[in-house]
Structures are given as structure tokens and as C-alpha cells.
């Protein structure tokens, strides 16, 4: 399942949460954690702000602190090597890495660079892609790059029972790509964020 733009609108965050997040990101330092909570580096295209806020709202429900580079006042005014150094520092510090994979983000050099760096430091258990397409389009029209298929994806599933009789409640899950035997492992998003 690929999420449509606007899917997370009901999760939109209020102004006080935005201000709280801004304060925390502005005080962020890799030398001292800005929170006792789990931290997520949320890679995104800056033009995807509406969807970004909804995803932040979802993550807030799980008690996660989200780092957004566009809110970081320690970022240089002009994109430079210092921008890359700061991003590297924060990706290393944050426990999880999520790419909000809109088509614009997939085309972005920065998002691809962040994903590659995140891959190096977060490995398969701490990285996920949240695919998002335009409203009213079919999943097969989503232009997600082929290499995104090697990463776990965040999906929404209806309640189901797997072939081993295990019950999974309706909700958000992180689904790993199939292994060599064809087995697919899924974990509730809330649990994945705690791991």
C-alpha cells in the first residue's frame, strides 16, 4: 500500500507541538540528547510540508521526537558542506531514520544522499521508507525508485491472521522486504520505534 497525499491530515499537529519541536530541534546537539524519548531523523522534501506535519503528528502519538532539518537554526543559511556535516551528525545521533518518499523527495539529491548515509549508519532494522503518491493515482503509477524496494516500508494494514495463526490488529506496520526464503517480517510501528 502506498499512502496518498493527505492521508495523515487528521494527524496534523497543532501550533504548540510545532513550537515545541522547533525549540527541541534548535537546542539539538549530538553531544547531549535533547530528549529521553526515541528520536527519528525524518528525511523529506521541504515542499512536502503539509504531509510532513501529518507524519510528525502520527509519530508524536507514539512519543517520538522528530528531527526536521528545515527547523534547525544551526543549519547554514546557504546550503554548503556545513549543511552536510550537520545532517551527518544528526543522522548518526537519531535512533531511527524515515524517508517521506514522495516523488519530489525521490528526485531530490539531498534526500537520496541522506538515505544513503542513513543506510550506512542505521542498517535494515532502524531505517524505513514511507511511500506517498499523489491523490487519485494508482499504486502502479508511483515512481518509487527500484532501490527503495530494499528498505523496510511503513504501511497501514487491516486486521488479519497470518498463516501461523498470529493475529495482527489494524494499524501502522513496518514491513521488511522478503528474505531469501520469501518470508516477510512485519512489526507494529509503535514497537519498531521502541526497538
Which descriptors apply to this entry?
32% helix; 195 residues; 6 helices; globular; alpha/beta
Describe what you observe in this structure.
The protein is α/β, with parallel strands linked by helices and 195 residues long. It is 32% helix and 21% strand. It contains six helices and ten strands. The chain has a five-stranded parallel beta sheet with strand order 1-5-4-2-3, with helices on both faces. The mean pLDDT is 86.
Helices and strands, with pairings:
Layout: E1 3-4, H1 15-26, E2 39-43, H2 49-61, E3 65-67, H3 81-93, E4 96-101, H4 103-107, H5 109-122, E5 127-133, E6 153-157, E7 160-161, E8 167-168, E9 171-175, E10 186-188, H6 189-194
Parallel strand pairs: 1-5, 2-3, 2-4, 4-5
Antiparallel strand pairs: 6-9, 7-8, 9-10
Helix pairs in contact: 3-5
Amino acid at each position: 500500500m502506498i499512502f496518498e497525499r493527505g492521508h495523515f491530515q487528521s494527524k496534523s499537529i497543532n501550533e504548540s507541538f510545532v513550537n515545541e519541536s522547533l525549540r527541541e530541534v534548535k537546542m539539538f546537539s549530538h553531544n547531549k540528547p535533547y530528549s529521553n524519548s526515541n528520536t527519528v531523523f525524518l528525511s523529506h522534501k521541504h515542499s512536502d510540508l503539509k504531509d510532513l506535519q501529518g507524519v510528525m503528528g502520527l509519530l508524536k502519538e507514539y512519543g517520538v521526537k522528530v528531527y526536521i532539518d528545515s527547523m534547525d537554526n544551526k543549519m547554514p543559511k546557504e546550503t554548503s558542506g556545513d549543511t552536510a556535516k550537520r545532517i551527518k551528525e544528526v543522522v548518526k545521533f537519531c535512533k531511527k531514520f524515515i524517508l517521506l518518499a514522495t516523488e519530489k523527495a525521490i528526485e531530490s539529491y539531498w534526500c537520496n544522499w541522506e538515505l544513503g548515509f542513513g543506510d550506512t549508519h542505521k542498517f535494515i532494522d532502524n531505517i524505513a521508507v514511507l511511500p506517498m503518491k499523489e491523490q487519485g493515482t494508482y499504486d502502479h503509477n508511483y515512481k518509487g525508485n527500484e532501490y527503495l524496494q530494499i528498505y523496510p516500508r511503513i504501511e497501514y494494514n487491516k486486521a488479519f491472521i497470518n498463516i501461523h495463526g498470529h493475529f495482527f490488529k489494524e494499524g501502522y506496520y513496518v514491513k521488511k522486504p522478503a528474505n531469501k526464503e520469501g518470508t516477510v517480517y512485519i512489526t507494529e510501528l509503535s514497537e519498531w520505534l521502541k526497538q
